[in-house]
């Protein structure tokens, strides 16, 4: 599948969130996203860069990703043809910046799949037509506020709830959610690396609440710490930030640093590498699930396609558009019996709403060959 790339549009969009989203890495009130549009003789291809506004979750930020795409990454593919599977190799001379690279690869892949009439889900090896929806609940100022938020999400039908935790806001909120909603709720927590191994006895108090998993309790580079912590907890450890590639996934599983993996395409440099992470998990018998990064409908469509692969055995951070946005860039993703439908059209399988795009865009740059 060859894609001719005549020009690439980099477009910043600002989507106000329905409520601030707070985690150990900071708070987001507006999703400032970067869209990548591949322009050529065939249908446009779209990608979404999931870097956050600030480099708090990882080293990337939306400004840095935009600058690197414009000056270094796009010039490596623009003005010629490239197969989607070759994009990562073209970009390999640039270290790091997986989220910027993933967005460009997705845009090329989408253009190619739209031209070929194939869905992203089929291309990746998806086998489901619907995926279970889970919701990530940010840190709240009060327990009452948290319980109200969880009540509303359960009412809407979410099949799994994830609570963000930090030291001082962990065992109490989890106990309160269990007390109010019972033991049948599929519940997990995400620490975004906010703890130290010295917190092991405290984290072991979470074992009383029958959680599906605890996500990224320690720093991203601390695999032996996670392995030691895992021996002291009954609750399975899941890694997010630590898993930067399929090789990293293999290493983490081999060291016993985790039993479960959160797969995010942006974090590992693209959907094709994300599929390889999936394959590592399947080979190791490790449960996997699809993570999220407050994506617009474009990135959400790609995540839902990825989550349709058979190794995604746990519900993902795949929520309806209205969990984050009053207005999305595509027709909104909606819950149906706690699930989202895998798009059936070619490529991402969703169309950009031109009015929404115009209204939410803050800047556009067109990158051409030799420019
Ligand atoms: O750690 O999983 C995370 C959002 C932004 C950055 C990191 C994370 C998250 C989430 C939200 O937890 C997932 C989502 O609903 O998109
Ligand atoms: Mg996480």
- Strand line-up of the largest beta sheet: 7-8-9-10-11-12-13
Fraction of residues in helix: 25-40%
Number of domains: 2
CATH class descriptor of the largest domain? Alpha Beta
Q: Name the poorly predicted regions.
A: none
Principal-axes shape call = globular
Using the CA coordinates, give the radius of gyration.
20 Å
CATH topology label of the largest domain: TIM Barrel
CATH architecture of the largest domain: Alpha-Beta Barrel
Q: In DSSP terms, counting alpha (H) and pi (I) runs of 4 or more, how many helices? A: 13
Structural class: alpha/beta
Number of strands: 15
Cα-to-Cα separation, first versus last residue: 26 Å
Can you tell me the CATH superfamily of the largest domain?
Enolase-like C-terminal domain
Bound ions, cofactors and other small molecules, one mention each: 2-succinylbenzoate, magnesium ion
Outline the biggest β-sheet.
7 strands, parallel
Binned strand content: 15-25%
| SSE pattern, N- to C-terminal | EEEEHEHHHEEHEHEHEHEHEHHEHEHE
